[in-house]
Amino acid sequence: MSTEPTDNPIPKPKIGDYRRHLLVCTGPRCTEDGKSQALFDSLGDKFKAAGLNAGDLRVKRSRVSCFAACKGGPIVCVQPDGTWYYNVTPDNMDRIIDQHLCKGEPVEDLVFHQAKQD
To answer: What pTM was computed for the model?
Structure first.
């Protein structure tokens, strides 16, 4: 017998397939003058130019209000890789897009934390 509710009034959300999820801290303590928000806003065009807006390499992006890692921002986290980057300037974001998101290799000099891999 199934334990699934058969008459659920809440519709199940849908989301397109993606390979990685880029989380950008846009909290006020991460950077001054809205640099993190500007970085986040630039990602749509950057992803499109790199071919990361659709297909097998598609990357989803989300704003996060605080990672509680408030030094060296902008701070960006790539999931499911568990790779955390600091000092993500527009030029450094281009490096992360090319090397990590497109080629699968972290940009080691920008990594400040790497989740343990099984």
So the answer is: 0.86
